[in-house]
Amino acid sequence: MPPGRPPRQADIARIAGVSQATVSVVLGGNRAGVRMADETRRRVLEVAEDLGYVPHPVATRLASARTNMIGLYTFRTTFPTDVADSYYPILVGVEEAAASLGQDLVLFTGTTGGGTHSAAAIRRVRIADGCLFFGRHVPGEPIARLVDSGFPLVYIGRRHELAGRIPYVGADYVTASADLVTSLHDLGHRTIRYVRENDDAPPSADREHGVRRAAPDAVLTRLEHGTLPVDTVRGWVRDGVTAIVVEETDTGAAYTAVRRALDAAGLSTPDDVSLAVLGRPPTPDGGVTGFEVPFRAMGGQAVHLLVDLITEQETVPQRLLRCPPVAGRTAGAAPKRS
């Protein structure tokens, strides 16, 4: 065997003194029940172990239709490896579940030189048994082709595209957002300002739906450029706003803009105005009122759902997980103003 080249079945056959067909039968688990001496089987397995033979994943897929590999594809430019990143716990949950189920993970970057995700890049996920996807948007045509072909896939995060045919595990942002705004109402807040980014991804739409359910009259402000003028915040408080509710996204732009504007205006929370985040802030500040997004559980359950789809188990293909409330210290009773 030439140095540097991985061992092949032909190498095992030559060293074990058997045919390559025999090696293939043994390493394939002898599914056809071919009669064979135990000594022959042991010799083939021992030689394979000594050589460090690993089956080629594509060849294994062709032979058994299973590789025990699942893909993970993100529509961000890079995978979120910073522990402070909101997507990081998703990866932790995915890895834990994959390991517990005996699945290998294949990370697909998918980007071309221009930072875009082409249909050809997305098609490459077919080398795995199935694939997990996450990111705020769905590239319709290539994902539709995968769904139409029956390729198992699961989005991490609720998706409504393709007439609701995309399997997903997401967070119940609607209920959590409504509950958070209701808690502000119970504290006496009647004039609430809602701040969100200028983006219509499903997580943003779900949060707004929840806010509208609990406070139909809440005034919405969309941040066009990720900034909020200090005079705007002062004007809100002067006009009677007692609570500001802020959308959470993976960028954290809305929360950061509001927090900077409040600090620059010299306004304190909750004495001057209450502040609540529809999720958790992009900083490790445990004192902010909001709710916990179960990212880790979403990642883990997405793996379990994907494996169920791959193995054709009876399952519910779309799941929403509860978001537990976080009391925090930035929301309190509405201040009494004359």
Q: Could you characterize what this model shows?
A:
- The protein is an alpha/beta fold and 338 residues long.
- The chain has three domains: 46 residues, 434 Repressor (Amino-terminal Domain) (Orthogonal Bundle); 130 residues, 3-Layer(aba) Sandwich (Rossmann fold); 119 residues, Response regulator (Rossmann fold, 3-Layer(aba) Sandwich).
- 40% of the residues lie in helices and 16% in strands.
- The strands form three sheets. It has a six-stranded parallel sheet with strand order 2-1-3-4-5-11, with helices on one face. A four-stranded parallel sheet has the order 7-6-8-9, with helices on both faces. A two-stranded antiparallel sheet has the order 10-12.
- Strand 4, helix 8 and strand 5 form a beta-alpha-beta unit.
- Helix 1 packs across helix 2.
- The radius of gyration is 26 Å and the shape is elongated.
- It starts with 8 loop residues before the first helix and ends in a 12-residue tail after the last strand.
- The model has no long low-confidence stretch (mean pLDDT 87).
Query: What is the structural class?
Result: alpha/beta
The SSE string, one letter per element, is HHHHEHEHEHEHEHEHEHEHEEHEE
CATH architecture of the largest domain: 3-Layer(aba) Sandwich
| CATH fold-level assignment of the largest domain | Rossmann fold
Question: Uncertain runs with pLDDT below 50, 5 residues or more?
Answer: none
Distance between the termini: 89 Å
Shape estimate? elongated
Broad CATH class of the largest domain: Alpha Beta
**How many domain regions?**
3
Count every beta strand, where a strand is a DSSP E run of 2 or more residues.
12
Strand order of the largest sheet: 2-1-3-4-5-11
Given the structure, what is the number of helices? 13
Q: Tell me the CATH superfamily of the largest domain.
A: Response regulator
**What Rg is obtained from the alpha carbons, in whole angstroms?**
26 Å
Mean pLDDT score:
87
Largest β sheet strand count, sense and barrel closure = 6 strands, parallel
Keywords: DNA-binding, Repressor, Transcription, Transcription regulation
GO molecular function, one term: DNA-binding transcription factor activity
Protein name: LacI family transcriptional regulator
